[in-house]
Every structure is written in structure tokens, then in C-alpha cells.
Sequence to fold (194 residues):
Amino acid sequence: MNKDSEITSFSPTSPTVKKVASALILLGNIGFWSQLLLGIVSLMMLLFSTPLLGSNSKTSGNENLALFCATVGVLTLALSIFFFFRRYISIGKSLKKARSGGERPNKKFTIRLIRLGLTSNLVGMLISIIGAEAFAGLLFQKASLIPTGSTTLFQPSQLINSVEIMALLANVHTIFSHYAGITLGLILLERINR
Fold:
């Protein structure tokens, strides 16, 4: 895609353009900071729990799938954070700074960019949900093997531990972060299409 297809000349004094620019900047900042904070929490939980889960010699295929999905979910979250920070905010600023007869991003390009960000969030959310389901299935499997009211001793690998719950929470935080990105992206699309 060349630079000419991304820009077009319009009157920058239009109130609609000013509203769209303000929405892109405001919602871009909200999306960036909310996804960044939730993403950092998810990443820290995942970085802490992955080596401890991987050190278990009886790592199952479901656990490996869950860890893989959690990692990919956080990576797609990083892509979404990039869209909010680098693209949406910069487009909003360029719309605000456009002079009469100057060049600025056109509506079609901006909508396509927001849709690409939404797709990133949807894919990341789907992958994170698969990871969370895998972790929840592992926790349920372990819990169902423990007899109710039993005073029998179990091996530590048979019990649910806090690291497994932390990995599940990392996925839940990632899902919530992708949800925030989807919500803000849909609001942006609605504002642009008015």
C-alpha cells in the first residue's frame, strides 16, 4: 500500500472531523493504558507460572496447549496495544493538526485500520478463551479425582496448586483486556460512521 492511498485532502475545520479526532485520541489513550496495565499483569503472572508448571515432569498435553494459548493471547494483546498507541492516537493527532488543504488519513483507511485492530483482539480473545478452558479443564480433572471428605494423603502433583490458578487468572486478565479493546474499537467505528 502506498502513501497516496492512505491520505486525502479535506477541510480540517469540519466539526465531524474534530469529533472523530478527539474520539481517536481519547479512546486510543484509554485503550492503550487499560490494555497495557492488564497486559503487564497477565504477562507477569504467565512469566511466573510457566517455569513452575513446566518443571513438573508429568506435564500433560492439555497443560502445554493451555500455556501455548496463554502466550499467543498475550502476544496478540501486544499487537492490539500497538494499534491503540501507535496508530489510533497518531491518526487522531494528524486529523487535529491538518491544515486547510493539508493531507490527512481518509475515512476508509481509518476504518480498515480499526477493523484490523478488532480482528487482532478477536483472535487473541479466542485463543485466550481456549487456553482458559484448557486450564479450567485441568483444574476440574484434578478436583474430581479427590474424594470428598477424604483424609487420605495425596501426592502434591495430584492436588490443585496456586501456580495453576495463577496461569488461569493470567488468561482471564488477557481475555478482559481483549474485551476492552473490542469494546473501544466498536465505539470508534460507531463514532467514525456517524
User: Anything to note?
Assistant: The mean pLDDT is 79.
